[in-house]
Amino acid sequence: MDWDHARIFLAVARAGQFLAAGRALGLDHATVGRRVGALEAGLGLRLFERRPSGCALTAAGERFLAVAERVETQMLRAQAELAAAGVEMAGAVRIGAPDGFGTLFLAPRLGSLVEANPGLTVQLAPLPRTFSLSRREADIAVVIERPEEGRLVVRKLVDYTLSFYASRDYLARAGTPQTIEDLTRHTLVTYVQDLIFSPVLNFMPEAFGPRFRRFECASALAQGEAVRAGAGIGILHDYAARADARLVRLLPTRRFERTYWLVTHADTRDLLRVRAVAEFIAGEVAAARQLFASP
Description:
This protein has 10 helices and 10 strands. By secondary structure, it is α/β, with parallel strands linked by helices. The model has no long low-confidence stretch (mean pLDDT about 85).
């Protein structure tokens, strides 16, 4: 099997389009098509169903995908072992994380890791609603629901809490709620319900009923900025919000507890760069454990 052809096959399988795969690889889409055609001819199998909107794997393509990913893993390990011989860590590691944890906690800390390892490229990406480590959409994921399926290695990072917050300006204008029932007289800053990527982020399902006024934002960061600007009352991460003098924590007996999990794929977790970045994240969280403690 020609590895270069297989590499292009993987890019098409993951992108679902010849054009998008070509962009990712720096190749024109005609070259991608020729390479995949040559691979199919060599195997005597049709790997993709070509469609106007893209392409989909055939049954044979699904089987070949598993083979190609195993080969890819071995290639990555070989590269990592060669790099390890030279001590310097090199290559790219993509981290998928919720926007709250990724931006509020990780982003300010990852610079020191990159500075200490000039050959390492760290990519921090928001975690979408569907996500696959096996398809190499990321090397490491931080998730809020523990995965139960797949060849994944999962470790608990930390428990964290969220609470109701409002800006001082908003409370001066609209009054301070004393009970959950009082929230019906306020505007709640919350998620866009059909864009919530995990059900554990639906902290108050009843808030989406007709009794509540809402300002809906698709990301935790946007919610935080809206609350700071006085748009209403929101449920924010305590580790980021409680130190902000512009905000007041409300309804202290109502708190939401969740957990961050660190996930790697069994095939790539021992790659030097993946292992090093995963250990860095775990170490930074451990060092900041008090930050995540309940208020």
